[in-house]
Amino acid sequence: MKQIRVLIAEDEKEIRNLLKKYIERELYMVDVARDGEEALSLFEKNTYNLIILDLMMPKIDGIEVCRKLREKTNVPILMITAKDHEADKIVGLSIGADDYITKPFSVNEVVARTKALMRRFLILGSDNGLQEKTLLKFKGLSIDMKKYIVYIADEEISLTAKELELLKFMASNPEQVFTKSQLFRNVWGNSYLEDDNTVMVHIRKLRKKIEVDPSNPLFIQTVWGIGYKFVGEKDES
Questions:
Q1: Where in this chain does the record put each Response regulatory domain (predicted)?
Q2: Residue 176 is part of which domain span?
């Protein structure tokens, strides 16, 4: 069975070692980096299923590391920040982070979020090891859960893990209207504090990637005063 591998990039030694210890208890393989430069170096040498990334790190900060990673991979990224400001959270999500947690935090919560991200993108098969979810097809749009790619009119469009999960959830329930709170609970998890900005940032990013005209979306439509719905005709071919 293929083992899940996690990269932790955190400059504070005590936090880094504590996270490593707890995440290894889940039988995950864990590598650690003390700064952004080391994190990028390890990424080039290994394949990871999830990255835990501190926002404030020496040499190369977490924002720049996240940007560089998103140029090469769609692996889920959990960002850690000591700043409890809305702007920092939005910046992290805007550059490609899938989730964030603010210091001080419970180590058990970090582990829970790590497992939740894994659970949403990987199916643990008893015989075949890790198997990604399957293809979801609509007229003009296909969602490949294995490659983290969306096809729009035969053009490949790469999504982050959380963008893909949000799109997959909505596309699995076409024409159903969801409030921002419902989307947050279903995609980010019931245990998290609801955050409308998180949903809106990801909706905006998705529209820029999959819509011909993001200001007049065809697939992800706004239902004014309520929330959003996905509109698409399933392709059974």
A1: 5-118
A2: 157-230
